Amino acid sequence: MYWLLSACILLIFAIWIIYKLEWFFIFLGINWGKGPNPFTEVLKHDPPHQSTIEPQAVRDKVLRKGFLPKHVPDNLDAIIIGSGVGGLSTGALLAKLGKRVLVLEQHDRAGGCLHVYEDKGYLFDVGIHIIGQLSEGMMTTILIDQITDGQIGWNTLPENFDRVVIGSGDERIDFDVCSSLTGNKFKDDLVKRFPNETKSIEKYFNMQKAARLSFLPAMLTKFMPKKLILILRKLNLLNRIFKYYNYCEVSLKTVVESLIDDKDLQAILYYNYGDYGTAPADAPFSMHAILQQHFIQGAYFPVGGPSNVAYHLIQTIRKAGGEVLVRAKCTEILTSTDQCKAIGVCVQKGSESINILAPIVISNAGLHNTYNSLLNASVKQKYLLDGVCNKFNPGMTCLTAFIGLKGSNEELNLSATNIWHQVSNATQQDLDNFCNLSMEDALEVDLPILFISFPSTKDPAWSAHFPGKSVCEVISPVPYRWFEDWRNDYTDGKKGDHYLTLKKTFGERMWSQTLRIFPQLKDKVDYFELGTPLTNSFYLQYAKGEIYGIDHDVQRFSGANSCYLKSTTPINGLYLTGQDVLSCGFAGALYGGVLCASAILKRNLLLDLVKMRIEYKKKFQKGKEKAKSD
Fold it and tell me: The pTM is what?
């Protein structure tokens, strides 16, 4: 009897230890590494959301500085391949510690999806439409203030930042997705609209919150050795210690269908899967939960447009003696003779190959591009990198229409609310049916989902620079296979009349669907350009035109595979940054940059940011209380 009692006590103790190990690893994370801290005293906008905005022509002198050997700084500390959010944020964090960083961009302007382009008097943002969690004192706000010296302001978008439109005509359903200070308005509005599903809606949002709260502790696995993660996985302990992975390994569709019966409600809950590009049947519940939680307390857009963010990140890099150069295509990551260490990159300039050396090489080019295209075959074979790449599929590609409109935002009655239009409430089935069509058949039907946005309504500085004009962007997912016959042709002229006809037909279809929601825009089009998956491939340098890097599916986020998506690589001195390290989107790529800088500096910068947020609240909340008492 005594033996049995002792065994029971030991078993209970062991179970308790397992469930408390998450906090043990958090403690380890807090005390991990003694590297230097790039963060300084907490900055605070005064007045809130004030921004330094230079004219686009001034910004372009920085954003479009071309590569020449004479522009490369001496005594580099690091080279970064790619100037997207991940690359620039990593570079800025290193620069805050005086590191001399060279960022190389293959495109003719820096910024990745932060970049803008102007054509025939219209300015278009190519990748940023909405960002969350940027109110005063939020961790992301503090981070951006730190790496831009507080130069970025944020325009608060309307409470109804997104609108779901399902169907058309008399059967059309509209539902506004709203933010609030409490973060409960989206849920409360759903309960009002679907009272019979109240308990299910409560369960759904409780699961969302649980997934969000488990996210930050699970990020500590990004600092843990891969072997340790695999051992924990083998012992069935990883998901018990880090609850987040339980939410990663179940699909969004499985969760929603297990809770919700109403098809309209299901479609509304699925509505913004296009923000990460994976359909509900394949998307992990965790990804969707964190995305929707990201916006429920407010949505924002950078004052001066996305290129203003890139501009100030580059200024931080340049202040430390670094540089950002465009039209600099890296063709290879150079390694030491024994292939154990990255030592630099090779840049193709015309017919000349130029080697640039540095002790650290950071790739923001994506996992597949880095391992498949930038390392030679013997290095790939030595580190079995093909096996790593095969674990992850390429993500979604799309059509993007850029439309210039005659008339101001006010004249055309446009708002900053994004529209997510689904042709019916059969979200998954509609997408599957469409993607299984031949391209010729697809030209005869409506696209199953459209994202419609008016960037000109989101930037308060727009009307001063572009009076009497506004812009619209429409995005829709399509299969890459429809376009791959033209993949080796780089310009529309080489692709031939058939390709141009397809572009025209798809563009007309997208605009026709848009006019059903915005009939006032008929005959207002002054400029129309359609980007295809091949456009994405050319400008983003992704083989399948994927706009979000590797697919955001259950396979990617599983505990078994997440350990391969870290900033560190098997090659000393080679690091990964950006969206493939964490997730897509501005915030995902930004924090991918933080994880990369953490690995290089051997310091957990995420926990430094948590501490800074606590410090901010203490410091400035006291100031508010004092002001009220006065």
Answer: 0.93
